[in-house]
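Explain this one:

_____
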Amino acid sequence: MSTPVQTSLTGLKASTLKLVGIIAGAQLILASTGEAHNVLTKQATTLLGEIVQEHEKGDYIPGIVASCSKELLRVRLMTPRVWPNWHSIGHDDPWVSKHAWRNKIRTWEALGDHSCDLSVVPDPSTSHSLLDLPSPAPVPSSCT
C-alpha cells in the first residue's frame, strides 16, 4: 500500500474508533435520559459526516459506518422525535450487505482489521430475559 493510502486508512480507522466509542457509550445509557442521547446523537452525526466527507470516494468504509448512517438517517425526520436505536448499529448489521457502499465495506473487511468491530446487540430494555425462579412454597391445605 502506498503512503497516502496508509495515511487515509489510519485516519479512517481513528475516526471510526471514535464513532464506535460514541455508539458503545450510548448503548449503556437508559432510554429515558433524553439529553444524553441528544448530545450523543449530535456527536455521532457530526463525526459520521466527517467520515463520509473524507472517505466516501475512497475504496474503504467500515460496516459500522454504513450501519450508523442508516440508523441516523432513519430517525432524522421522525415525528415525534425518537432517539437512534443504538443497539441496532454494528459492523454485522445484515442491512449493510445491501448498502450502496457494500463493495467498500467488503474491501474494508478484506483488510482483516477487526479493531473497529462492534456487534449489533439486543436492547436490554426490550429483550426478554429468562429467570430461573424457585417454585413457590406449597400452601398447607389446613390453612384457611
Remarks:
- The chain has four helices and no strands.
- The first helix runs from residue 3 to 27.
